[in-house]
Amino acid sequence: MGRMTGKVAFVTGAARGQGRSHAVDLADEGADLVIVDIGEDITTNGYPLASPADLEETVRLVEKAGRRVISAQVDVRDRVGLSKVLDDAVAELGGLHVIVANAGICPLGNDVPVQGFVDAFDVDFVGVVNTVHAGLPHLDPGGSVIVTGSVAGLVPQAGGVNGQGGLQGAGGDGYGLAKKMIRDYTRSLALTLGPSRIRVNAIHPTNVDTDMLQNPAMYKTFRPDLTDPTREDAEVAFPFMQAMPIPYVEPSDISHAVVYLASDESRYVTGQQLFVDAGASLKLGI
């Protein structure tokens, strides 16, 4: 406990799933939080996104940990909006030490229009860049930038995940391109910020038990042999991704890595691509 005492962390996509888990774990370790989420759906994304009520629940959980928190409903595609929220929050909380660019969507299916490519790429890569670049002016030496990548996004696109290829459809293509570019972006930014002693790392999870995984379009991706697969049907195929015989990891498994990379324990760790994936990257040859 207390590894984040005296630090302020900025987390996007914080209303539920991985983002909420990261925010709460950081708060439990002593951090104050700035958290944002879009709070509404994106038309091309087939599963519902987090609601304002979800974001309020994350606020409640952070406050329950005894930490200060500032929240806002902001789309990560809006760099001006992100900068305004962050500038005001930093003035109130007294600084910024950690950026966790976590917000993401994954619109799947062969019926997703071209706009699905645009939306996935804009949220999953442009949104990361907006988040990081809005926060960089506030970081001092010792600061940490953490970006959420994806094992599935790093697999070559042909074939679909169930056939050891990337996620299918226009949205899957946009998602995969975004996650591949995150790998190069974080490496390059780590070199650029190294002399400033600001570190930059990416975490690439395998399947995580969140709404991004647990939805009909994802079930169909893993069970294309069925017309209307259920969660139970998909969970037969989910373990295919991992070397370890598990269907998915939990958000908390990723949060443990986030807290490490946010804390001073990782003060000399930068430019890394950390796979929290039960061996999926090994199995898939990434």
Number of domain units? 1
Radius of gyration, rounded? 18 Å
Give me the count of strands: 7
Q: Which CATH class applies here? A: Alpha Beta
Summing up helix and strand content along with how strands pair, one would put the structural category as: alpha/beta
Profile the largest sheet: 7 strands, parallel
**H/E series, N to C?**
EHEHEHEHEHHEHHHEH
At the fourth level of CATH, the homologous superfamily is NAD(P)-binding Rossmann-like Domain
Q: Numbering strands along the chain, what is their spatial order in the largest sheet?
A: 3-2-1-4-5-6-7
Q: How big a fraction of the residues is strand?
A: 5-15%
**Roughly how many Å apart are the termini?**
35 Å
Tell me what the CATH architecture is.
3-Layer(aba) Sandwich
Q: What is the CATH third-level topology name?
A: Rossmann fold
Shape: globular
So how many helices? 10
Ranges where pLDDT stays below 50 over 5 or more residues in a row are: none
> Which bin fits the share of residues in helices?
40-55%
Mean pLDDT: 96
Organism: Mycolicibacterium vanbaalenii (Mycobacterium vanbaalenii)
Keywords: NAD, Oxidoreductase
Protein name: (-)-trans-carveol dehydrogenase
Family: Belongs to the short-chain dehydrogenases/reductases (SDR) family.
Chain-wise SSE layout:
Blueprint (H helix, E strand, L loop, with lengths): L7 E5 L4 H12 L3 E6 L14 H13 L4 E5 L5 H15 L4 E4 L12 H22 L8 E5 L2 H4 L14 H25 L5 E7 L10 H7 L8 H7 L13 H12 L10 E4 L3 H5 L2
Parallel strand pairs: 1-2, 1-4, 2-3, 4-5, 5-6, 6-7
Concise overview:
The protein is of the alpha/beta class and 286 residues long. 43% of the residues lie in helices and 13% in strands.
